[in-house]
Amino acid sequence: MALQLPTAQIAQLPGATLDQDQTTRQAHPILERARASGTDAGHAGNVTPREAYELLAAGIARLVDVRSPEERKFVGYVPDSLHVAWMTGTAFQRNPRFLRELESKARKDEVLLFLCRSGSRSAAAATAASRAQFRAAYNVVEGFEGELDDQKRRGSNGGWRFYGLPWIQD
Fold first, then answer.
1. The CATH number of the domain where 148 resides is what?
2. Tens-binned pLDDT, residue by residue, of the chain (170 aa)
């Protein structure tokens, strides 16, 4: 489920209309720029947290949070995001059910934006999804918390929360 904004706000977003079909959605200027930027990572491209929010608010994409359940619970998460952990357990091993879980929650023709803590795991997850024939798998660079700062902390150097985008915490 995409973030819900009033119809008037959606209409004000660049390139957004209320009755776009999937082909039109994938032609959105943000997605065209992301594809044209030429990612060698094996997925459709990269979007910033602000671009991801714009796409979600317009109903063009769905957000897939690939962090662990613990990260989501204790650090916070984006409302209405899908949760499919890329890594599991205390040893952070790759989730062997990742693709099956993703297939049970999302269609292969949807625009999917993958989000993790910093943009690293989500890039790997977007690549795996692309290889599994998900046609529009994008990575959200900077992730939920951004890169480490000079004190080796996250949250002050980019990321979803840094930009004040909607999030909640249990």
1. 3.40.250.10
2. 444 443 334 334 434 444 445 555 667 889 988 888 756 668 999 999 999 999 999 999 999 999 999 999 999 999 999 999 999 877 789 999 999 999 999 999 999 999 999 989 999 999 999 999 999 999 999 999 988 677 767 676 789 999 999 999 98
* pTM, rounded to two decimals: 0.82
Question: Does residue 106 belong to any structural domain of this protein?
Answer: yes
> What's the number of domains the chain is made of?
1
Phi, then psi, of 74 in degrees rounded to 5:
-90, -20
Q: Are 31 and 23 in contact (CB under 8 A)?
A: no
Please give the residue range of the domain that contains residue 92.
50-170
Q: Is 161 contained in some domain? A: yes
Six token digits for residue 143: 């992730």
In the β-sheet with 136-140, what is the strand arrangement from edge to edge?
45-47, 136-140, 111-115, 62-65, 82-83
Would residue 9 count as lying in a domain? no
Inside any domain, residue 64: yes
